[in-house]
Amino acid sequence: MPVQPVVPIREFVDASGVRWSVWSTVPDMRGVMGSMQGGWLTFESAIGRRRLVPIPPEWESASTPALREMCGRAEAVRVSPRTGSFRVDSGE
Fold first, then answer.
1. Cβ proximity of 25 and 39 under 8 Å
2. pLDDT tens-digit profile of 36-73?
3. Number of folded domains in the chain?
4. Which residues make Cβ contacts (< 8 Å) with residue 7, sequence separation at least 6?
5. In this structure, is residue 2 part of a structural domain?
6. What residues does 12 pair with on adjacent strands?
7. Residue 35 has pLDDT above 50, yes or no
8. d(CA 75, CA 29)
9. Half-sphere exposure of 7 (CA within 13 A, CB side)
10. Share of the chain above pLDDT 70, in %
């Protein structure tokens, strides 16, 4: 049985008091195009999910202010009910 890699998960609280979890997502190459092939950071909280492409170097050791800044740059996404995958939320 192959060993699954350990994915670091960080948690931080943003300036509004919202607790976020963040981890890197590196997809199977099938069906992933363009800049997303290298993966992205996934930010998740009680208020939503966000995705930052590409994965910033050394994000695992970034300070809380740096994680807040990355989260602020990340695009809002939502889960597709049909596939369970993330899609960028256009706000419509």
1. yes
2. 777 899 999 999 999 999 999 999 999 999 999 999 99
3. 1
4. 23, 24
5. no
6. 20
7. yes
8. 21
9. 13
10. 68
